[in-house]
Design a protein that fits this description.
Order of helices and strands: EHEHEHEHEHEHHEH
Mean pLDDT: 92
Low-confidence stretches: none
Strand order of the largest sheet: 3-2-1-4-6-5-7
Shape: globular
C-alpha cells in the first residue's frame, strides 16, 4: 500500500528541512504532499529544494488555515492511505510504519497515534483532555486523544468525509465524522514532545474544536 503524507506548512523555516529529511527516509512506499499556506519567511525556498517525483509542493497564495491546507493536500493525494504530518519536531515520522501496519494487515481502517501529554503546559494538556472527554461523551466512545496530528486512514474514507473546517477545528471534524460514519478508531501510542517556539495552536482553539464536535453530532455520510 502507498502512503500519502499530507503536510500543511506555515512559517516553519526553522524546522521544515529537518522534518522533510526525516519523512523522506521513512521505509514505506510513499508520497509527500506539502502545502505551503502562504508562508512569509524562508519556508517556501527551503521546501522547493526538496521537490521531486515523490514530493509535491503546492502553494496557497493567501493564508487559509491548517484545515484548508489539509483539504488541498488530500485532493492531490494518490496513495491508498493518508496521514497528516505536522512540520515541526513534536511528532516522530519513525512511528508511521507502525501506525500503518494494522491497516496493511487488514486489522483496522483508521489508526490514531496517541500522545503522552506530560510535556505539554498544563493549560494545553487540560484543553486536550477536555476535548477528548467531550468527544467521548457526545459520541459514546472511549478514545484517548482525538486532537493528535497522526490520523491515518484509507484515502477513500478521508475523501468520503467531505471536510469543511478551515483551521485547527478540522481535527475534531475528522473524528466526529469518522464516528458518525461508523468507523472504529484504532489507537496506538506514539512518541511526542510538545514545542512552544513558533507555536500556532493556542488554548482558545479549543472553542472551535468543541463547536465542531457539536456541529457534526448529527452529520450523516452522503451515501446514507
Amino acid at each position: 500500500m502507498k502512503l500519502s503524507i499530507l503536510m500543511p506548512v506555515f512559517n516553519e523555516s526553522q524546522s521544515i528541512a529537518a522534518v522533510l529529511e526525516r519523512v523522506q527516509v521513512v521505509p514505506l512506499d510513499k508520497e509527500i504532499i506539502v502545502v505551503d499556506d502562504a508562508s512569509t519567511d524562508a519556508t517556501s525556498d527551503l521546501i522547493g529544494k526538496f521537490a521531486s517525483d515523490h514530493l509535491k509542493v503546492i502553494h496557497h497564495v493567501t493564508n487559509q488555515g491548517k484545515g484548508t491546507a489539509i483539504r488541498t493536500a488530500l485532493k492531490a493525494a494518490t496513495g491508498d492511505v493518508i496521514v497528516i504530518q505536522d512540520a515541526d519536531f513534536e511528532y516522530d515520522p519513525g512511528d508511521l510504519p507502525r501506525l500503518m501496519a494494522p491497516i496493511t494487515e487488514g486489522k483496522a481502517e483508521v489508526v490514531y497515534g496517541v500522545r503522552l501529554l506530560e510535556s505539554q503546559k498544563l493549560v494545553m494538556r487540560l484543553g486536550n483532555k477536555f476535548i477528548t472527554f467531550a468527544a467521548n461523551l457526545l459520541y459514546g466512545q472511549n478514545l484517548r486523544d482525538i486532537e493528535t496530528c497522526y490520523k491515518m486512514m484509507r484515502r477513500d474514507i478521508a475523501l468520503s468525509l467531505g471536510l469543511e473546517c478551515r483551521r485547527f477545528d478540522i481535527e475534531a471534524e475528522i473524528t466526529a465524522k469518522l464516528l458518525r460514519a461508523g468507523y472504529t478508531i484504532y489507537e496506538l501510542p506514539i512518541s511526542y514532545t510538545a514545542r512552544y517556539e513558533n507555536k500556532k495552536l493556542s488554548p482558545i482553539d479549543g472553542l472551535p474544536a468543541l463547536r465542531a464536535l457539536l456541529k457534526y453530532w448529527r452529520w450523516k455520510p452522503s451515501a446514507q
